Amino acid sequence: MVERVRAVEFVKEATSGRTGPAILVCEDEDDERIELFCKLSAGCDEGVRNLARELLSAYLAADLELPVPRPYLVELDPVFLDVLPEGRFRNVAGRSEYLAFGSLRVPNQFSIWTPTTSLTAELVETAAGILLFDGIIQNPDRRSENPNCLVRGGDVRIIDHELAFTHGLVLGWRPPWEPGGMRSFETPGFHIFREPLRGLPINYEPISERWQNISDARLEEYLDALPGEWNDARATIQAGIDLIKEARDRIDGCIDEMRRILQ
Questions:
Q1: Can you point out the beta strands (E) in 107-261?
Q2: Which residue in 25, 51, 120, 188 has the fewest CB atoms around it within 10 Å?
Q3: Which residue has the higher pLDDT, 170 or 161?
Q4: Largest Cα–Cα distance in the chain?
């Protein structure tokens, strides 16, 4: 499901990102070069579990037809690590698993979503889909001060999902299909799309259909695609898949809760 590539050139450390990511040039099995935004396990609070959450989120977003950059598994061999320039990324790389998470670099023409960015009519369904997606996967990281959303005209990309699927760590957690399950999004600024969507007519039918079209067999593919190097994250990803499955089966309840927070 996800392609493995090898890192061959360091471009630069990212200008933002709590995990200390970097932009790398990587080669695929056909020696084609691509630029990826790469995260390392030692830069994350929970190591490969965070990287696996990124991968699971990317699979799900793609199946829901949400605009997430294509994911990759990035191999960092010792020869590459030896030639990295001194800096934070080299230090983190030396403490990380050799398999990193990568996503296709978003073109420079995209800019960061800001509170003054207008939600155009063509983006309403996409924004609603993203809000529901974040509510279900329990992603707390699409806030006004850290939007993790890039925009170019009527096109957006959503990034950074390593904090999703941490519902098992939250005291008093309530599932998203129950009243109050998305109550955190009612906090001003907690999600960039909550205020722009309030009061707008939203067609939930295609959003609901995409969730219902995710089969149990497809969810098993998510788990089977977890690389062996990240086996420590297997229970974490199984818990995430269980959450996706139950939300899919209760999608009407999830949408009802989303309607509530948009009142």
A1: 111-112, 149-152, 155-158
A2: 188
A3: 161
A4: 56
- Cα separation, 184 vs 135, in Å, equals 9
User: Average pLDDT over the chain, rounded to whole?
Assistant: 95
Render pLDDT for 238-251 as a digit per residue (tens, 0 to 9): 999 999 999 999 99
CB atoms within 10 A of CB 108: 7
| Overall average pLDDT of the 129-153 stretch | 96
What is the pairing mode between strands 71-75 and 3-13? parallel
Stated as kind and residue range, the H or E segment containing 215 is none
pLDDT tens for residues 51-71? 999 999 999 999 999 999 999
Would you give the DSSP letter of residue 143?
B
**Which tokens hold the place of 90?**
């080299």
User: Mean pLDDT over residues 201-225, rounded?
Assistant: 97
Cα separations in angstroms, 236 against 45, 94, 233, 245: 14, 25, 5, 14
Q: What is the pLDDT of residue 218?
A: 98
Count of CB atoms situated within 10 Å of the CB of 219 = 21
Residues 6+ apart with CB under 8 A from 260: 179, 182
Q: What are phi and psi of 95, to 5 degrees?
A: -110, 5
Q: How many CA atoms does the CB half-sphere of 31 hold within 13 Å?
A: 0
Structure tokens at 159: 């990034």
Residues contacting 169, CB < 8 A, separation 6+: none
Q: What does each C-alpha distance from 64 to 130, 141, 206 come to in angstroms?
A: 9, 19, 10
User: 12 and 22 in contact (C-beta within 8 Å)?
Assistant: yes
Instruction: Return the pLDDT at 155.
Output: 94
User: What residues form DSSP beta bridges with 25?
Assistant: 9, 35
Residues found in the chain: 263
pTM, two decimal places: 0.95
Cβ atoms of 74 and 108 within 8 Å: the answer is: no
